[in-house]
Amino acid sequence: MLDIYTLGDEILREKTEKIKVFDSALAIFVDAMFETMGESDGIGLAAPQVGVSKQLFVVDTRRPNERLVFINPEIVETSFEQGLYEEGCLSIPNMYSDIMRPLEVTVQAQDLSGKSFTLHASGILARVIQHENDHLNGVLFIDRMEEEAREKLLVAYKKRHKRRK
Ligand code: NI
User: Fold this and answer.
1) What's the 130 CA to ligand 1 centre distance in angstroms?
2) Digit-coded pLDDT (tens) for 47-97
3) Which residues have a catalytic role annotated?
4) What is the pLDDT at residue 67?
5) How many whole angstroms from 114 Cα to the centroid of ligand 1?
6) pTM exceeds 0.85
7) CA 25 to ligand 1 center in whole angstroms
8) DSSP secondary structure string, the chain?
9) Is residue 105 domain-resident?
10) Domain range holding 116?
């Protein structure tokens, strides 16, 4: 299992680099990401969360055959319609908040072999894609909360995780 970096770790705030080499080392790393995500009961995991500042995230919303890898992704279209949905993050354990986001997205990305694909997503998949894509830009879901609610969450988080600096 890979180590998961948490709130306060600088790497979560860095801008990620494009992946240019699609080799077996990348495939092995992606397998480890899926394993780590599964063990942690997550449905999405971005590379910076496991200490690698690259444009890559994986998604598994537990639907059959939905083990998705997004490399160098770009959200090219979002729906006008937005909605609230409760989000959490393996890098901010045990904290949840309703976040407003577009309900549908179209994303372009590359797969493990470097092949480009375009995916239109709605529902929970659209939500996870946007959350994970934010990670690649150093953005966390708490950044999308209103200030007062975010401050409350951070106080509760610090109480829960006192051992961390
Ligand atoms: Ni997250």
Assistant:
1) 10
2) 999 999 999 999 998 776 678 999 999 999 999 999 999 999 999 999 999
3) 132
4) 86
5) 24
6) yes
7) 24
8) -PPPP-TT-GGGGSPPBPP---SHHHHHHHHHHHHHHHHTT-SEEEGGGGT--BSEEEE--SSTT--EEEEEEEEEEE-S-EEEEEEEETTEEEEEEEEEEES-EEEEEE-TTS-EEEEEE-HHHHHHHHHHHHHTTT--GGGGS-HHHHHHHHHHHHHHTTT--
9) yes
10) 10-164
